[in-house]
Design goal:
Radius of gyration: 20 Å
Number of domains: 2
Number of helices: 10
Low-confidence stretches: none
Distance between the termini: 63 Å
Shape: elongated
Oligomer: single chain
Helix content: 25-40%
Largest sheet: 7 strands, mixed
Length: 266
């Protein structure tokens, strides 16, 4: 049975051996490694991961036909989970030396990344290597006061150190997407600001970037009663725009917002 990519699932299979080798070599995979691959498709990347002889490989594939094909193709060498990664309880995936790989479907790539970032601290992994649409990748790694700096920059850089590896041509995929892609490598930060609820950081970044072209005083007025105190405490110029604030400043604002919520509830 010939497996056709489904546009509805954002499937673009990675078929270039050179790119696949770049990805697998980033993993530092050894006999103690456990691999989680999200959206393996036809298993082209999986084949090369198997050659690295890890302890275990888990594949999460939403497409039922592709899942059945992967089971036949690898015949017990991998564990295949036929489910949408976004519906999985990933805290149940508890392995030492876990690395996560994925040529992520463009239509849900950001959601997958955010789901992992929002996971509780008992979900451990050593690194992630993901393929994104280049435009999304540029927003993930963007620095403050640049045109690509956005909510996903702030949220991604909260718990992750991120490195761009390479831009990838559409010719490396079947079918060819209309855009370029980028490989990003992620490492969990050992130290990061702890929040009561990550949703508060999502909310705050949404408020600020809903007024991207407005002065900072407008979103601050929505969040706080005394914005002059906040401005002085965090050395914020109220006439600046949201993109002028560093990720670290947003994390401080979020902590302050949570303190305010706690006071209101007592």
């Amino acid at each position: 049975m010939k497996l056709k990519p489904k546009k509805s699932l954002g499937q673009n299979f990675l078929v270039d051996d050179n790119v696949i080798n770049i990805i697998t070599n980033l993993g530092n995979i050894n006999s103690n490694s456990t691999i989680l691959e999200i959206g393996p498709g036809t298993g082209n990347l999986t084949e090369k991961l198997i050659l690295k002889r890890p302890k275990k490989i888990i594949l999460v594939e939403k497409d039922k036909n592709l899942s059945e094909n992967l089971k036949r193709k690898f015949n017990g060498k991998v564990e295949v989970i036929n489910n949408d990664f976004l519906d999985l309880s990933i805290v149940d995936i508890k392995y030492k030396n876990l690395s996560i790989f994925g040529n992520l479907p463009y239509n849900v790539a950001s959601e997958i990344l955010i789901k992992i970032i929002k996971s509780k601290e008992n979900f451990y992994y050593e690194k992630m290597v993901f393929m994104f649409q280049k435009e999304v990748a540029e927003r993930i790694i963007a620095k403050q006061n640049t045109k690509n700096y956005s909510r996903i920059s702030i949220i991604s850089q909260w718990k992750l150190n991120i490195r761009k590896i390479k831009d990838i041509s559409p010719n490396c995929f079947y079918p060819k997407p209309k855009v370029q892609s980028s490989i990003l490598e992620f490492f969990p930060k050992k130290n990061y600001t702890k929040f009561n609820e990550i949703e508060n950081l999502e909310y705050i970044s949404k408020i600020f970037f809903s007024f991207r072209r407005k002065m900072i005083k407008k979103p601050l007025n929505i969040l706080f009663k005394d914005i002059n105190r906040i401005s002085e405490k965090f050395q914020i110029n109220l006439n600046d725009r949201p993109q002028r604030l560093s990720p670290e400043t947003y994390y401080k604002i979020c902590s302050e917002y949570e303190n305010q919520l706690n006071k209101m509830s007592t």
